[in-house]
Every structure is written in C-alpha cells, then in structure tokens.
Amino acid sequence: MITEVYPGIYKNEIPLPKNPLRAINSYILLSDTRNLVIDTGFNTLECQTALLEGLNELEVDLSKTDLFITHMHTDHSGLAPVLKKLGVNTIYFSKVDGDLFNQTSKRDAFFQTLNKIFGFKTDVASAFGKEFGKRLTETLEFTPLAEGDKLDIGDYCLEVVDIPGHTPGQIGLYERKHRLFFCGDHVLDEITPNITFWGFEQDILATYLRSLNKVIEYDIDYLFTAHRKIIRDHRSRIKELIAHHDERLGEILDILCEGRKTTGEVAASMHWDLSYKKWEDFPHPQKWFASGEALSHLEHLVHTGKVERIEVDEAFFYQLK
Which residues cross the membrane (predicted)? Predict the structure, then answer.
C-alpha cells in the first residue's frame, strides 16, 4: 500500500506474513533525475510482489533509482539482489553490514555458536521457515557509506548517520533542512527493537544506548521507522526505550538472585510481550530472538562489572558478582 508521507516521499507498506513484525515500511523518494528506495522486505514472492507493485504504481524508473539498505537483516535487505537484477543502479550499505550480508558462511558459523550458547539443538537454517525468504547465493556488489556521506535526491540532502546497536553497522539518513530521519529499526513505535548478541568482545547494548543518546539530540519532525507508525516525538520514544532496557537489566539481576543460570534459562524466566503462555510454546525464531536479547543484556552486566560469566564443560553460565 503506497502512501505519500511527505512531499515526494512515499511509504510502501510491505506485508511480512507469519511474522510478528507484520510489515516493513519501504520508503521511496522521487525526483526528476534520481530516485531512492530505502529497504526492501524478505526475498519472498509476497514481499517482491508488494515492493514491485508499489514501484510500478509510482512509475519508478529503476535505471534512475538507487537502493539504500539501513542494515543487513533480511526483512530489510532480502530483495536487494532482485532489484539489482531488475536494473537498480547503486546499492548502498554500511561497510560493516554489507560485509555481514555477503559473508554467509561466517554468519552461519556464528549462528551455530549461538545455538550452542542458547542450548538449542535445532539446526539454525531449518528452524527459520520459508517466510524469512531465500538465502543469498551470490556476492552482492554494494557501495559502502559512512557517517557524513551525503545523497542528494531532488530537494532533499540526506546525510548518513551511524546508528549501530540493532546490528553492528546500521546506518540512517538525516535530512537537516526538513528535519526528517530514516532510522531503520533504530527506534520503533509500539514495539522495541531487538538488541541481540554480536560477540563477547563488544558490549552491543552499550553501543545501542549510545546511538539512542546520539539521535535524541537531533532536531526531527518526522522519524520514518521501518516498522509500525511514523514517530513525531522521537525524544519521548527514545526515553521510553532507554527506560525499557533499564527495566530489562533489573529483571535479569532479579532472576540471577536465584543462582547461576544459562542464557536459555534467563530468557525463559523473562517477561515477553507475546501471546504464548509458557516458554515451551514459543516458536523457535521467537526463542532465538529472546535468547539473543537476554544474552546482550547479560553481557552488558558483565562489561559493567555486575555479573560474571563462567564457562563449565563448554557451557556458559552467568551469576551475580
């Protein structure tokens, strides 16, 4: 469904069947000389049909169109190879997330390591159903963007802003004159962005909180999010997200008061805003996302000296210091 959300800027709401996110907002910026599409949807027939129908409705010439990917998650990047084959000119990614998108074997090995940490015995690839789309088989050629780079689309001058946290290399676009910000999954209304574990060497939750405090300083009238509603009061929403993660950290400390626990045990004891009555009823993808979020918070508590991580017989346990 195409909606003009600002002069020359359109939101193409692409359904994500069987996914709690429900839909992704792909944005299209039009001008006489150059167009820009922001994010794509999964590499599925349903997403591809909706994406192309929206582009056709606006009579977008793909040979005069570039693609900007906010981050490497497949609901945002899955159709990038398809659009490239259909004639899109340049595909923009951050260097970090673009490399993650292309390094499928390295990513698979990391996910298998996470499977072990979470205590899951299900194979990662088979556990995520067809609704997540076809896997990349060829390397995607992309142009890397970094903080301060600019894209000019008609009257809009879009500045690249680094906003890592949801992924290690998520980027957004800020239009200073019109006070617009395309933020991907950095800030969402109604739901909270998933902040997952990306390795023991980094405190990804701290990275995300720094990015929130960075964006709260920007003057923004329209925060164009990738899911659910466009946000008009970004500062209030960011304060809510920061409070949410503070509550999560307190909840985990309370859980660890019961004694040493694995990541999976902590995740199973946490509160999740899902309709399932008990942890065993969660679909595997939701267990995966919940466990990743639990682990990012546990590691933040390790990095801040409140919790210690212990390895016993190749299993990781967490306990209060």
Answer: none
Q: Is the dihedral of CA 124, 126, 128, 133 positive or negative?
A: positive
pLDDT of res. 109: 85
Tell me the pairing of strands 65-68 and 91-94: parallel
- Provide the strand spans (E) within the chain: 2-6, 9-15, 23-29, 35-38, 65-68, 91-94, 143-145, 150-153, 156-162, 171-175, 180-184, 222-225, 307-312, 315-320
In DSSP terms, 321 is beta-bridged to: none
- Predicted TM-score (pTM) of the model is 0.95
Which residue type is seen at 9? I
The predicted structure's pLDDT at residue 243: 98
Q: How far is CA 123 from the centre of its chain?
A: 22
Residue 229 counted as domain residue: yes
Provide the pLDDT for residue 125.
Answer: 57
Nearest 5°: the CA angle 214, 22, 210 is 10
CA distance 223 to 179: 9
Q: Is residue 271 part of a domain?
A: no
pLDDT recorded at residue 137: 72
Query: Can you give the pLDDT at residue 166?
Result: 98
CATH of the domain at 243: 3.60.15.10
Q: What is the largest CA-CA distance in the chain?
A: 63
pLDDT value at residue 111: 82
Residue position matching structure tokens 């072990």? 116
Spatial contact of 211 and 163, defined as CB atoms under 8 Å apart: yes
CA distance 201 to 146: 22
What average pLDDT does the structure give for the chain? 94
Residue type, 218: Y
Helical packing angle, 204-215 and 234-256, nearest 10°: 160
Q: How high is the pLDDT of residue 124?
A: 61
The answer to the question of residue 292 being in a domain is no
Provide the residue range defining the domain that includes 11.
2-250
Query: Which residue stretches of the chain have pLDDT < 50?
Result: none
In a domain, 315, yes or no: no
